[in-house]
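As promised in the previous annual report, we have extended the structural survey to additional targets. Below is the entry for ABC transporter permease.
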Amino acid sequence: MRMHISTMWGLRGVSGTVSIQSVLERVRVYLGHVATFYYEEVSNVAVWWLWNIPFQFLQIFFSLLLFKYFAEAFGGSSPLYGGNFMAYIVSGLMINTYMDASLEVYYHSMAALYHGRMGVGGVHLSRRDFLHLAGISPYVFIFARVSWRYLMETLTFALYLLAGVLFFGFRLSAGVDWGLVFLIVLLSVAACSGIGLVSASMYFLAGAYRGVEPIVWFVRLFVPLVSGIYVPRELLPRGLAIVGDILPQTYAVGAMRRVLLGGAVLSGVAAELGVLVLEALVLIPVGVVLLRYSLSLERKRATMF
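The corresponding structure token record, generated without further manual editing, is:
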């Protein structure tokens, strides 16, 4: 009996070890797939990015120059901009690069899955069908596309910072907490990703593969006006300010400015970070559930393009 019990415990231990090993092996395989998708992206856009970086910098420079002369045409900076109009604009645009990407990247990943075509032996399959035949989860592909996009947006973030510092008097507060800056970026990406996931689910739920996706279309319509990226929220009528109170961009932009320009510490932006955490905890699960349901509808309907 003792041998039997010890043998059972031994088998359980072996089973647990095998289970951990299988999980690790699956993670290794998924990371290999992600690396492959990265290689595909690098092959497609690396030369494009290297060629376009100087042009991207010039575009950022002249867009900021337009803001500068626009402000001067109306008498310079208002006290509502904190005494430095250009720093106000640059800091808002910097953080919005990540948030705007979060709104659209999941939908575009869906489009790449179902509109993308791959040729195999003279037969053209959607990328989704090709991945299905290869036994690769579509979520691995989506993760790879999304994470790659954030790497590219980091470059845009740096270009805004460089242009602001070199040409527009953008000065960081002494002793900026870069860990806190990273936390703000992370939470803003998480909250806006919830909206982006809901947007991606509209691909099949609302038939948004036909063209305009309505969720992000409406969010982008309001964000520039009500979230404080360009216009101080103190100037807004109450109705528009309430719309801004709902959007995560409002809290991310406000927190980023306090840290970069005012030298705020964690306690100084805790309220904004709390709202971002709350919105992420609500929106991401809703977006994931809707996206999974949307993908299941595609298989049931056998949607053709």
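The chain has a mean pLDDT of 84. The longest strand covers residues 117-120. These points will be discussed at the next consortium meeting with the crystallography subgroup.
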